[in-house]
TrEMBL record:
PROSITE patterns: FE_B12_PBP, PROKAR_LIPOPROTEIN. It comes from Corynebacterium antarcticum. The keyword Signal applies. Pfam families: Peripla_BP_2. This is ABC transporter substrate-binding protein.
Length: 409
């Protein structure tokens, strides 16, 4: 990315017999060839960062995922299930011309969670609209029997899926069915797991060079942000309002996800002082009492009622959304009872960001924008919107037509 600086699977019948003995099983915030179970071992975080696919003695590949598990495949997988549909955010980076190559099924979240992206993807790549959906693993509506029916050589699940499936016992059934899986994470801890996840997917898909190239760019932007933030002792109080307007005020992230990114961008994440979980809620009264200097709301294209006054009950951002609509709906959030008493909007420090950066390897673009909003004097020469345009042009089969960052003024 040009940075803008101004100046195989085993037989279905056999797997089905295994499942008969196991029984059936089995969102934004809720959350696997069937031959032989995956080999597992634990490695340090530094080893996870540096490990690449190693050729096994029989000509196969071994991949290390974000959980430190090593998974060996006899050959490069040809039939892959994306447990989360939004996994295409990453596979498109690795193969812009055929982002769902080898994908035989995927999670049901893409269409509902990122409808603007989905519509653009289907228009540019019609097969995306034909890939079967399996449901949502984290919500418990996916059965191992259904996974087996696609005869996958590999299943890609998220860290959220991994935790949920471990709790419900679904992982035991996946192992018993002989489905090999790798775990990725762009949501829980993006600052440490993004490049590990892209590397693992690059190895799984035989796109290691593309993964290496992307990770180099990701690290370049993140390192620049860290270096500039380190030059100042200022840490403005910042509130991240998650999916603003979709529920009662106000959902947020603590030391995870976009909350983690607020900290790296040089802000003092308000939620870190109030909640002790990765995500939670802060009341309007508490928000008014704390008076954060900066408020960043996430929004998406979750409604088609764009012709109504204050168009939608959330900040409307994403593909196909005009700047005027995004700004109007951002301002509309201030109609939430009590929020008119906040100082940040009047100071011009109330912003909106496309929600889907929270679960995407493109999170580095949001990090860059957060840093510019929090420390404008340190990032005057940085243009995140232009960098996002470049990223779309380089990595996606459609342009960044829409609004992804907005300020109240």
């Amino acid at each position: 990315m040009k940075l803008h600086i101004k100046s195989a699977g085993a037989a279905l019948a056999a797997a089905a017999l295994v499942l008969a003995g196991c029984g059936g099983a089995d969102d934004d915030a809720a959350k696997d060839g069937a031959a032989g179970s995956a080999d597992k071992s634990t490695e340090s975080s530094s080893e996870k960062e540096s490990t690449s696919a190693r050729e096994a003695s029989d000509g196969g590949i071994t991949i290390t995922d974000v959980e430190g598990r090593t998974v060996t495949f006899d050959s490069l997988p040809e039939r892959i299930i994306l447990g989360e549909g939004r996994g295409v955010f990453a596979t498109a980076i690795l193969d812009k011309d055929d982002p769902l190559d080898k994908v035989v099924a995927m999670g049901s979240d893409l269409k509902s969670g990122a409808p603007g992206y989905y519509e653009n993807l289907v228009e540019a790549y019609p097969r995306a609209g034909e890939v079967p959906e399996i449901g949502n693993i984290a919500k418990g509506d996916v059965t191992v029997e259904n996974l087996v029916s696609y005869q996958p050589d590999a299943l890609v699940i998220t860290a959220d899926h991994y935790s949920a499936a471990k709790t419900t016992g679904m992982l035991d059934k996946i192992d018993a069915a002989g489905i090999k899986y790798i775990v990725t994470d762009f949501r829980q801890h993006p600052m440490t797991n993004t490049t590990v996840s892209v590397t693992a997917l690059g190895e799984l898909l035989g796109k290691e060079d593309a993964a290496t190239s992307f990770n180099k760019e990701w690290n370049s932007v993140v390192d620049r942000v860290k270096e500039r933030v380190a030059e100042t002792d200022s840490r403005p109080s910042t509130f991240l309002w998650r999916a603003a307007g979709l529920k009662d005020c106000c959902a947020t992230f603590g030391k995870a996800n976009l909350g983690e990114m607020i900290t790296v961008a040089g802000g003092d994440n308000l939620a870190d002082h109030i909640i002790d979980t990765e995500s939670g809620d802060i009341t309007a009264e508490k928000l008014i009492d704390e008076q954060p200097e900066i408020i960043i709301a996430t929004g998406g294209t979750w409604s088609k009622q764009n012709d109504k006054p204050q168009a939608v009950p959330h900040a409307d951002l994403g593909y196909g959304v005009s700047e005027e609509t995004s700004r109007d709906t951002l301002r509309g959030l201030l109609e939430t009872p009590g929020l008119s008493e906040l100082d940040a909007p009047g100071d011009g420090r109330f912003y909106g960001v496309w929600h889907q950066f929270y679960d995407s390897p493109f999170n580095y673009i949001a990090l860059e924008q957060f840093a510019k909003w929090i420390h404008p004097d340190k990032f005057e020469d940085v243009d995140p919107a232009a960098d996002w345009d470049d990223a779309n042009s380089k990595y996606l089969p459609f342009p960044a037509d829409g609004t992804f960052f907005i300020g109240i003024n």
